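Shipment paperwork, digital attachment
Item: protein structure file
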Amino acid sequence: MAVDWLPDQLPEDVDAERALLATCCAPGSEKDAADIVFQLHEDDFVHPAHRAVFKSLRALIEARLEVNALTLKDVLDQDDALGKVGGFPGLVELLSAEEVGRPQILAELLRRKRKLRDLIRIGAGLARQAASEEAPPETLIEQSAQDLFRLSQGDQRARGLEHIAAVEAAAMPALLDRLEGRGSTGLRLGFPKLDHLTQGLQPGNLVILAARPGVGKTALALNWLLRSAMISGAHGAFFSLEMSAEEVFNRLLSTKAQVNMKEVQAGDFDGRVQAKLLQARDELLELPMFINDMASITVPQITAMVDRHLSTSNQKLDLLIIDYLQLLSSPDSSRAAKQNEAVRIGEISRGLKLLAKDRRIPVVVLSQLNREVEHRTGNRPQLSDLRDSGALEQDADVVMFIHRRTNPGPAGDEPEREAELIISKHRNGPTGSIPLYFEGEFATYRELERRSDSGY
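Attachment content:
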Protein backbone atom coordinates (compact mmCIF):
# COMPACT_ATOMS: atom_id res chain seq x y z
CA MET A 1 0.00 0.00 0.00
CA ALA A 2 1.44 3.39 -1.01
CA VAL A 3 2.12 5.90 1.72
CA ASP A 4 1.72 9.62 1.11
CA TRP A 5 4.73 11.16 2.80
CA LEU A 6 3.79 14.71 1.85
CA PRO A 7 0.37 16.42 2.04
CA ASP A 8 -1.36 17.37 -1.20
CA GLN A 9 -0.85 21.07 -0.43
CA LEU A 10 2.20 22.53 1.24
CA PRO A 11 2.01 25.89 3.03
CA GLU A 12 2.35 28.69 0.46
CA ASP A 13 0.95 32.05 -0.56
CA VAL A 14 1.32 32.60 -4.31
CA ASP A 15 -0.58 35.91 -4.18
CA ALA A 16 1.89 37.26 -1.61
CA GLU A 17 4.80 36.14 -3.79
CA ARG A 18 3.38 38.00 -6.80
CA ALA A 19 2.57 41.15 -4.82
CA LEU A 20 6.05 41.24 -3.34
CA LEU A 21 7.73 40.91 -6.75
CA ALA A 22 5.47 43.60 -8.27
CA THR A 23 6.34 45.95 -5.39
CA CYS A 24 10.09 45.33 -5.63
CA CYS A 25 10.09 45.81 -9.42
CA ALA A 26 8.04 49.02 -9.38
CA PRO A 27 9.76 52.30 -10.39
CA GLY A 28 11.44 54.07 -7.47
CA SER A 29 11.51 51.01 -5.21
CA GLU A 30 15.21 50.21 -5.58
CA LYS A 31 16.07 50.70 -1.88
CA ASP A 32 13.24 48.52 -0.58
CA ALA A 33 13.95 45.94 -3.27
CA ALA A 34 17.63 45.67 -2.34
CA ASP A 35 16.76 45.18 1.33
CA ILE A 36 14.18 42.49 0.56
CA VAL A 37 16.29 40.65 -2.02
CA PHE A 38 19.16 40.11 0.40
CA GLN A 39 16.79 38.76 3.05
CA LEU A 40 15.16 36.18 0.81
CA HIS A 41 16.19 33.19 -1.27
CA GLU A 42 14.69 31.42 -4.28
CA ASP A 43 13.45 28.70 -1.92
CA ASP A 44 11.13 31.25 -0.31
CA PHE A 45 9.09 31.27 -3.55
CA VAL A 46 6.97 28.32 -4.65
CA HIS A 47 5.71 29.27 -8.13
CA PRO A 48 8.37 28.53 -10.83
CA ALA A 49 7.68 31.87 -12.58
CA HIS A 50 8.13 33.75 -9.32
CA ARG A 51 11.39 31.96 -8.57
CA ALA A 52 12.71 32.86 -12.02
CA VAL A 53 11.74 36.52 -11.68
CA PHE A 54 13.22 36.75 -8.19
CA LYS A 55 16.52 35.30 -9.42
CA SER A 56 16.63 37.85 -12.25
CA LEU A 57 15.70 40.69 -9.88
CA ARG A 58 18.54 39.76 -7.57
CA ALA A 59 20.99 39.63 -10.48
CA LEU A 60 20.02 43.16 -11.55
CA ILE A 61 20.31 44.55 -8.03
CA GLU A 62 23.69 42.89 -7.46
CA ALA A 63 24.90 44.41 -10.76
CA ARG A 64 23.40 47.79 -9.71
CA LEU A 65 21.33 47.98 -12.89
CA GLU A 66 17.90 49.54 -13.30
CA VAL A 67 15.00 47.20 -12.67
CA ASN A 68 12.10 47.26 -15.12
CA ALA A 69 10.23 44.85 -17.37
CA LEU A 70 12.79 45.17 -20.18
CA THR A 71 15.89 44.59 -18.05
CA LEU A 72 14.17 41.66 -16.33
CA LYS A 73 13.27 40.23 -19.75
CA ASP A 74 16.92 40.48 -20.80
CA VAL A 75 18.19 38.58 -17.75
CA LEU A 76 15.45 35.96 -18.08
CA ASP A 77 16.41 35.52 -21.73
CA GLN A 78 20.06 35.00 -20.83
CA ASP A 79 19.06 32.29 -18.35
CA ASP A 80 16.66 30.63 -20.84
CA ALA A 81 13.94 31.25 -18.24
CA LEU A 82 11.60 33.64 -20.07
CA GLY A 83 9.35 30.75 -21.00
CA LYS A 84 8.80 29.98 -17.31
CA VAL A 85 6.91 33.27 -16.92
CA GLY A 86 4.90 32.97 -20.13
CA GLY A 87 7.16 35.15 -22.24
CA PHE A 88 7.24 38.94 -22.10
CA PRO A 89 3.40 39.24 -21.91
CA GLY A 90 3.42 36.92 -18.88
CA LEU A 91 6.15 38.98 -17.24
CA VAL A 92 4.23 42.21 -17.77
CA GLU A 93 1.07 40.63 -16.34
CA LEU A 94 2.97 39.35 -13.30
CA LEU A 95 4.42 42.79 -12.59
CA SER A 96 0.99 44.37 -12.85
CA ALA A 97 -0.11 42.86 -9.56
CA GLU A 98 -1.17 45.24 -6.81
CA GLU A 99 1.74 46.80 -4.95
CA VAL A 100 1.91 46.95 -1.14
CA GLY A 101 3.11 49.69 1.16
CA ARG A 102 5.08 47.45 3.56
CA PRO A 103 6.82 44.69 1.57
CA GLN A 104 8.74 43.61 4.69
CA ILE A 105 5.56 42.02 6.03
CA LEU A 106 5.23 39.92 2.87
CA ALA A 107 8.89 38.91 3.11
CA GLU A 108 8.35 37.67 6.66
CA LEU A 109 5.23 35.80 5.54
CA LEU A 110 7.12 34.01 2.76
CA ARG A 111 9.95 33.03 5.13
CA ARG A 112 7.42 31.63 7.60
CA LYS A 113 5.73 29.58 4.88
CA ARG A 114 9.09 28.27 3.72
CA LYS A 115 10.01 27.19 7.26
CA LEU A 116 6.75 25.28 7.52
CA ARG A 117 7.50 23.56 4.20
CA ASP A 118 10.99 22.68 5.45
CA LEU A 119 9.55 21.20 8.65
CA ILE A 120 7.15 19.05 6.66
CA ARG A 121 9.94 17.83 4.38
CA ILE A 122 12.23 17.02 7.32
CA GLY A 123 9.46 15.06 9.03
CA ALA A 124 8.38 13.30 5.84
CA GLY A 125 11.96 12.45 4.92
CA LEU A 126 12.60 11.01 8.38
CA ALA A 127 9.40 8.95 8.24
CA ARG A 128 10.22 7.62 4.75
CA GLN A 129 13.82 6.73 5.64
CA ALA A 130 12.80 5.09 8.91
CA ALA A 131 10.04 3.06 7.23
CA SER A 132 12.37 1.82 4.50
CA GLU A 133 15.27 1.32 6.96
CA GLU A 134 17.62 3.27 4.71
CA ALA A 135 20.05 3.97 7.55
CA PRO A 136 20.60 3.05 11.22
CA PRO A 137 18.30 4.94 13.61
CA GLU A 138 21.28 6.70 15.20
CA THR A 139 22.26 8.16 11.83
CA LEU A 140 18.69 9.30 11.12
CA ILE A 141 18.43 10.93 14.55
CA GLU A 142 21.72 12.82 14.12
CA GLN A 143 20.79 13.96 10.61
CA SER A 144 17.36 15.16 11.71
CA ALA A 145 18.81 16.93 14.77
CA GLN A 146 21.18 18.88 12.53
CA ASP A 147 18.38 19.77 10.10
CA LEU A 148 16.15 21.00 12.92
CA PHE A 149 18.94 22.96 14.58
CA ARG A 150 19.73 24.78 11.34
CA LEU A 151 16.05 25.56 10.94
CA SER A 152 15.77 26.76 14.54
CA GLN A 153 18.60 29.24 14.08
CA GLY A 154 16.40 31.40 11.89
CA ASP A 155 17.46 33.31 8.80
CA GLN A 156 20.93 34.73 9.26
CA ARG A 157 20.62 36.27 5.79
CA ALA A 158 17.57 38.19 7.04
CA ARG A 159 19.65 39.91 9.71
CA GLY A 160 20.53 43.38 8.56
CA LEU A 161 22.64 46.14 10.06
CA GLU A 162 22.33 46.50 13.82
CA HIS A 163 22.43 49.89 15.47
CA ILE A 164 25.38 50.24 17.81
CA ALA A 165 22.96 50.56 20.74
CA ALA A 166 21.86 46.95 20.17
CA VAL A 167 25.46 45.76 20.10
CA GLU A 168 26.28 47.79 23.22
CA ALA A 169 23.45 46.15 25.13
CA ALA A 170 25.05 42.77 24.56
CA ALA A 171 28.71 43.74 24.94
CA MET A 172 28.84 46.38 27.69
CA PRO A 173 27.64 44.36 30.72
CA ALA A 174 30.47 41.84 30.28
CA LEU A 175 32.99 44.65 29.81
CA LEU A 176 31.78 46.44 32.95
CA ASP A 177 32.08 43.21 34.92
CA ARG A 178 35.74 43.03 33.95
CA LEU A 179 36.39 46.71 34.66
CA GLU A 180 34.81 46.40 38.10
CA GLY A 181 36.73 43.25 38.98
CA ARG A 182 33.88 40.78 38.62
CA GLY A 183 35.76 38.56 36.19
CA SER A 184 35.22 37.92 32.50
CA THR A 185 32.95 35.90 30.28
CA GLY A 186 35.77 33.44 29.61
CA LEU A 187 35.93 29.91 30.99
CA ARG A 188 38.62 29.59 33.68
CA LEU A 189 40.79 26.48 33.28
CA GLY A 190 42.40 26.46 36.73
CA PHE A 191 45.84 27.57 35.54
CA PRO A 192 46.18 31.09 37.02
CA LYS A 193 48.81 32.48 34.64
CA LEU A 194 47.06 31.05 31.59
CA ASP A 195 43.67 32.33 32.79
CA HIS A 196 45.16 35.78 33.38
CA LEU A 197 46.77 35.95 29.94
CA THR A 198 43.73 34.69 28.01
CA GLN A 199 41.00 35.95 30.39
CA GLY A 200 39.62 32.44 30.04
CA LEU A 201 38.47 30.58 26.94
CA GLN A 202 35.86 32.70 25.22
CA PRO A 203 32.52 31.39 23.91
CA GLY A 204 32.70 30.83 20.16
CA ASN A 205 36.49 30.50 20.08
CA LEU A 206 38.35 27.70 18.32
CA VAL A 207 41.50 26.83 20.29
CA ILE A 208 44.27 24.64 18.86
CA LEU A 209 46.53 22.84 21.35
CA ALA A 210 49.40 21.27 19.43
CA ALA A 211 52.45 19.20 20.31
CA ARG A 212 54.52 16.27 19.10
CA PRO A 213 53.36 12.77 20.18
CA GLY A 214 54.20 11.79 23.74
CA VAL A 215 54.55 15.34 25.05
CA GLY A 216 51.30 15.25 27.06
CA LYS A 217 48.70 17.28 25.17
CA THR A 218 45.93 14.85 26.15
CA ALA A 219 46.95 15.13 29.81
CA LEU A 220 46.87 18.93 29.69
CA ALA A 221 43.47 18.95 27.96
CA LEU A 222 42.04 16.57 30.57
CA ASN A 223 43.49 18.79 33.31
CA TRP A 224 41.55 21.70 31.79
CA LEU A 225 38.37 19.62 31.64
CA LEU A 226 38.72 18.50 35.25
CA ARG A 227 39.78 21.80 36.82
CA SER A 228 37.15 23.89 35.02
CA ALA A 229 34.49 21.47 36.28
CA MET A 230 35.84 21.59 39.84
CA ILE A 231 36.36 25.37 39.97
CA SER A 232 33.24 26.69 38.30
CA GLY A 233 31.04 23.68 37.67
CA ALA A 234 31.68 23.98 33.94
CA HIS A 235 29.93 21.36 31.82
CA GLY A 236 32.60 19.84 29.58
CA ALA A 237 32.56 17.22 26.82
CA PHE A 238 35.62 15.23 25.79
CA PHE A 239 35.69 13.46 22.42
CA SER A 240 38.46 10.85 22.45
CA LEU A 241 39.30 9.40 19.04
CA GLU A 242 42.40 7.58 20.30
CA MET A 243 41.73 6.33 23.83
CA SER A 244 38.73 4.40 25.08
CA ALA A 245 36.31 6.01 27.53
CA GLU A 246 37.71 3.74 30.24
CA GLU A 247 41.25 5.00 29.57
CA VAL A 248 40.04 8.59 29.72
CA PHE A 249 38.31 7.87 33.04
CA ASN A 250 41.48 6.26 34.44
CA ARG A 251 43.50 9.35 33.45
CA LEU A 252 40.99 11.62 35.21
CA LEU A 253 40.95 9.33 38.24
CA SER A 254 44.75 9.31 38.44
CA THR A 255 44.85 13.11 38.26
CA LYS A 256 42.08 13.58 40.82
CA ALA A 257 43.47 11.05 43.30
CA GLN A 258 47.14 11.81 42.55
CA VAL A 259 47.76 8.09 42.25
CA ASN A 260 50.07 6.35 39.78
CA MET A 261 47.69 4.27 37.67
CA LYS A 262 50.48 2.07 36.31
CA GLU A 263 51.14 0.85 39.84
CA VAL A 264 47.42 0.30 40.38
CA GLN A 265 47.07 -1.67 37.17
CA ALA A 266 50.07 -3.76 38.19
CA GLY A 267 48.38 -4.54 41.51
CA ASP A 268 51.04 -2.67 43.48
CA PHE A 269 48.95 -0.65 45.91
CA ASP A 270 47.65 -0.76 49.47
CA GLY A 271 44.47 0.18 51.32
CA ARG A 272 45.47 3.84 51.56
CA VAL A 273 45.73 4.08 47.76
CA GLN A 274 42.44 2.27 47.34
CA ALA A 275 40.74 4.73 49.69
CA LYS A 276 42.12 7.66 47.69
CA LEU A 277 40.85 6.12 44.45
CA LEU A 278 37.37 5.49 45.83
CA GLN A 279 37.11 9.02 47.20
CA ALA A 280 38.32 10.48 43.89
CA ARG A 281 35.79 8.31 42.03
CA ASP A 282 32.94 9.61 44.17
CA GLU A 283 34.03 13.20 43.56
CA LEU A 284 34.38 12.65 39.79
CA LEU A 285 30.86 11.26 39.59
CA GLU A 286 29.52 14.57 40.92
CA LEU A 287 31.16 16.61 38.15
CA PRO A 288 29.33 17.55 34.89
CA MET A 289 31.79 15.87 32.51
CA PHE A 290 30.80 13.87 29.43
CA ILE A 291 32.89 11.48 27.32
CA ASN A 292 32.56 10.01 23.83
CA ASP A 293 35.10 7.54 22.45
CA MET A 294 33.90 6.86 18.89
CA ALA A 295 37.07 6.10 16.93
CA SER A 296 35.66 7.21 13.59
CA ILE A 297 33.59 10.35 13.97
CA THR A 298 32.91 13.39 11.80
CA VAL A 299 32.31 17.03 12.63
CA PRO A 300 28.61 16.74 11.63
CA GLN A 301 28.25 13.80 14.04
CA ILE A 302 29.89 15.77 16.86
CA THR A 303 27.63 18.72 16.05
CA ALA A 304 24.56 16.49 16.17
CA MET A 305 25.59 15.07 19.57
CA VAL A 306 26.16 18.57 20.93
CA ASP A 307 22.76 19.72 19.63
CA ARG A 308 21.06 16.68 21.13
CA HIS A 309 22.76 17.36 24.47
CA LEU A 310 21.81 21.05 24.41
CA SER A 311 18.21 20.24 23.54
CA THR A 312 17.89 18.07 26.66
CA SER A 313 16.22 19.80 29.57
CA ASN A 314 18.63 21.64 31.88
CA GLN A 315 21.71 20.59 29.90
CA LYS A 316 24.41 22.94 28.68
CA LEU A 317 28.01 22.82 27.49
CA ASP A 318 30.73 25.24 28.55
CA LEU A 319 33.71 23.44 27.00
CA LEU A 320 34.23 20.99 24.14
CA ILE A 321 37.55 19.14 23.68
CA ILE A 322 38.44 16.93 20.71
CA ASP A 323 41.46 14.59 20.85
CA TYR A 324 42.63 14.86 18.15
CA LEU A 325 42.14 16.72 14.85
CA GLN A 326 43.96 14.45 12.40
CA LEU A 327 41.90 11.43 13.49
CA LEU A 328 38.58 13.10 12.64
CA SER A 329 36.85 11.49 9.66
CA SER A 330 35.16 13.25 6.77
CA PRO A 331 31.59 12.36 5.72
CA ASP A 332 31.42 10.06 2.69
CA SER A 333 29.47 12.76 0.89
CA SER A 334 32.24 15.32 1.42
CA ARG A 335 34.13 16.31 -1.73
CA ALA A 336 37.09 17.32 0.44
CA ALA A 337 37.40 13.71 1.65
CA LYS A 338 38.40 12.72 -1.87
CA GLN A 339 41.06 15.43 -2.20
CA ASN A 340 44.40 15.90 -0.48
CA GLU A 341 44.83 15.96 3.28
CA ALA A 342 45.29 19.73 3.47
CA VAL A 343 41.89 20.29 1.82
CA ARG A 344 40.27 17.69 4.08
CA ILE A 345 41.72 19.22 7.25
CA GLY A 346 40.67 22.66 6.01
CA GLU A 347 37.04 21.52 5.75
CA ILE A 348 37.20 19.97 9.23
CA SER A 349 38.80 23.11 10.67
CA ARG A 350 36.08 25.32 9.20
CA GLY A 351 33.37 23.00 10.51
CA LEU A 352 34.81 23.15 14.03
CA LYS A 353 34.99 26.94 13.93
CA LEU A 354 31.34 27.11 12.86
CA LEU A 355 30.42 24.69 15.65
CA ALA A 356 32.13 26.93 18.22
CA LYS A 357 30.67 30.13 16.81
CA ASP A 358 27.10 28.96 16.25
CA ARG A 359 26.75 27.17 19.62
CA ARG A 360 28.74 29.80 21.57
CA ILE A 361 31.07 27.17 23.06
CA PRO A 362 34.87 27.27 23.27
CA VAL A 363 36.11 24.30 21.24
CA VAL A 364 39.60 23.00 22.05
CA VAL A 365 41.10 20.76 19.36
CA LEU A 366 44.30 18.84 19.90
CA SER A 367 46.60 18.63 16.90
CA GLN A 368 49.85 17.03 15.88
CA LEU A 369 52.85 18.96 14.60
CA ASN A 370 54.64 18.16 11.37
CA ARG A 371 58.19 16.86 11.48
CA GLU A 372 59.81 20.16 10.55
CA VAL A 373 60.02 21.01 14.25
CA GLU A 374 62.40 18.07 14.78
CA HIS A 375 64.96 19.58 12.41
CA ARG A 376 65.06 22.98 14.14
CA THR A 377 67.61 23.78 16.80
CA GLY A 378 65.91 23.56 20.17
CA ASN A 379 62.79 21.99 18.60
CA ARG A 380 60.75 25.03 19.65
CA PRO A 381 57.41 24.88 17.76
CA GLN A 382 55.93 27.71 15.71
CA LEU A 383 52.74 28.26 13.71
CA SER A 384 54.16 26.82 10.49
CA ASP A 385 54.71 23.51 12.31
CA LEU A 386 50.98 22.81 12.47
CA ARG A 387 50.20 19.91 10.18
CA ASP A 388 48.37 21.32 7.13
CA SER A 389 48.76 24.63 8.91
CA GLY A 390 47.11 27.07 6.49
CA ALA A 391 43.46 26.46 7.43
CA LEU A 392 44.20 25.77 11.10
CA GLU A 393 46.12 28.98 11.55
CA GLN A 394 43.41 30.95 9.77
CA ASP A 395 40.38 29.49 11.57
CA ALA A 396 41.82 29.30 15.08
CA ASP A 397 41.30 32.13 17.54
CA VAL A 398 44.01 30.80 19.83
CA VAL A 399 46.96 28.53 19.01
CA MET A 400 49.00 27.00 21.85
CA PHE A 401 52.01 24.70 21.74
CA ILE A 402 53.43 22.45 24.45
CA HIS A 403 57.22 22.45 24.27
CA ARG A 404 59.34 20.01 26.27
CA ARG A 405 63.02 19.54 25.61
CA THR A 406 64.20 15.96 25.24
CA ASN A 407 67.13 14.08 26.76
CA PRO A 408 68.66 10.80 25.53
CA GLY A 409 67.44 7.78 27.45
CA PRO A 410 67.67 3.97 27.30
CA ALA A 411 64.40 3.81 25.33
CA GLY A 412 65.23 6.80 23.11
CA ASP A 413 64.79 10.52 23.62
CA GLU A 414 62.67 11.28 26.69
CA PRO A 415 60.94 14.66 27.26
CA GLU A 416 61.98 16.63 30.32
CA ARG A 417 59.44 17.27 33.04
CA GLU A 418 59.76 21.03 32.69
CA ALA A 419 57.60 22.30 29.85
CA GLU A 420 56.51 25.52 28.23
CA LEU A 421 53.03 26.45 27.06
CA ILE A 422 53.53 28.81 24.14
CA ILE A 423 50.59 30.98 23.06
CA SER A 424 51.62 31.80 19.49
CA LYS A 425 48.31 33.23 18.28
CA HIS A 426 45.68 35.04 20.31
CA ARG A 427 43.20 36.85 18.12
CA ASN A 428 41.82 39.07 20.87
CA GLY A 429 44.68 39.28 23.34
CA PRO A 430 48.40 38.95 24.04
CA THR A 431 50.67 36.06 23.19
CA GLY A 432 53.32 34.74 25.51
CA SER A 433 54.86 31.75 27.25
CA ILE A 434 53.90 30.03 30.50
CA PRO A 435 56.23 27.62 32.34
CA LEU A 436 54.75 24.23 33.28
CA TYR A 437 55.89 21.09 35.08
CA PHE A 438 54.62 17.65 34.06
CA GLU A 439 54.06 14.89 36.59
CA GLY A 440 53.56 12.03 34.17
CA GLU A 441 52.79 9.43 36.84
CA PHE A 442 49.68 11.44 37.77
CA ALA A 443 48.95 12.77 34.23
CA THR A 444 49.13 16.25 35.77
CA TYR A 445 50.49 19.58 34.58
CA ARG A 446 51.25 22.37 37.05
CA GLU A 447 52.33 25.96 36.48
CA LEU A 448 55.81 26.91 37.65
CA GLU A 449 56.53 30.05 39.61
CA ARG A 450 59.23 31.54 37.39
CA ARG A 451 58.12 34.45 35.24
CA SER A 452 57.00 33.90 31.66
CA ASP A 453 57.99 35.91 28.58
CA SER A 454 54.88 38.04 29.12
CA GLY A 455 55.72 38.78 32.73
CA TYR A 456 53.29 36.35 34.36
